[in-house]
Amino acid sequence: MTGTTLDDYTDRYARRVRGMTASEIRALFAVASRPEVVSLAGGAPYIAALPLDAVGEMLNKLAADQGATTLQYGIGQGTLELRERICEVMALSGIDVGCGASPEDVVVTVGGQQALDLIARLFLDPGDVVLAEGPTYVGALGVFQSAQAQVVHVPMDADGLIPEALELAIAEVARSGRRAKFLYTIPTFQNPAGVTLTEERRERVLDICERAGLLVVEDDPYGQLGFDCEAPAPLRARRRDGVFYLSTFSKTFAPGLRVGWILAPHAVRDKLVIASEAQILCPSAFAQAAVTTYLSTMPWRQQLKIYREVYRERRDALLDALADYMPAGTSWTEPGGGLFVWATLPDGLDAKAMMPRAIAARVAYVPGTGFYADGTGTGNMRLNFSFPPPERIREGVRRLATVMEQETAM
Ligand code: PMP
């Protein structure tokens, strides 16, 4: 180390670097990963539920038997084999040939995160507005802020994004003379709120965006992780024009492989590939082969069931513990799938200010402010239930409730 600080470079940074701030979540991970801390802060899938020996054997074979292709460069759009498999996966949730889904229009990405970055590269100029649920996915905020766009939040309730609020936000942006480019939405088992946009609202949201000339960026990493019932069909299954569908194998298989995708309107597909080639040349051939082989030779539907069962049990453990321990005045969402519960604290409690005391009490969560671009969310926190086992979840909530009670007494 030379002792050089970032500040020495301040005058040289590009303007967009001003929008780059450290994510609160990343900063938390170091403390939250200490073994004595019950971390309800992460968002990691429970990888131990995978048949790791069989996956290991499969990966071995891919290198040993097919290394000449799997360890070589590939094409920017991603392999045809994987894009075909992706179409089969999307068809399960209703995005099928009937609504124009084809391997031709799929672009494989390095996780859903690169998909978001590509969308930003293609559509956002500095000063453009992105409409997004409030709260929204922290990684998307990072991408939009790096693109020097402004995020305008649209509130949600237990039924997801509120259509009337979307109309108001669109009108407000137009009145201020700015240009909203797209609605970024996670309609199903939302991160961080855990809520799902109802059938009826899906149609209304699409109509509103169409009338306003807004593109829709539908981010759907969790749609296949429903516990109680099937999720409503994605927006892309209902409308093809102007809807970009993003998803990933991070939650249904393994995030370490970093494989996601975009299903794009045909006209945009080439631009996405060009932008992606400029960024990464091509997605990892090895990771793509791993996902393709997993989907074609291993019981992945059964694995999805296992993930759902593990998460359902953990979601129930979290909801039961919240009901048993949380002080009066606390409320929370009841997700039908996904990985997260969003809690609202009693009046006067500040989740961010309370964090050091929570860590001292050996429990971690993510303060709500991390999920807003505008500093709101002080009275909220995101709680993850996919990673810690049920008894740890219960213990974590018990610790959290004690901290909150002490805080109220302060
Ligand atoms: N979108 C949402 C809503 C997410 O929650 C995540 C991961 N937490 C991602 C995109 C990106 O995931 P990945 O890059 O692992 O596919």
Automatic annotation (TrEMBL):
Its cofactor is pyridoxal 5'-phosphate. CDD domains: AAT_like (cd00609). Keywords: Aminotransferase, Pyridoxal phosphate, Transferase. Pfam families: Aminotran_1_2. Gene3D superfamilies: Aspartate Aminotransferase, domain 1, Type I PLP-dependent aspartate aminotransferase-like (Major domain). Residues 37-400 form the Aminotransferase class I/classII large domain. This is GntR family transcriptional regulator.
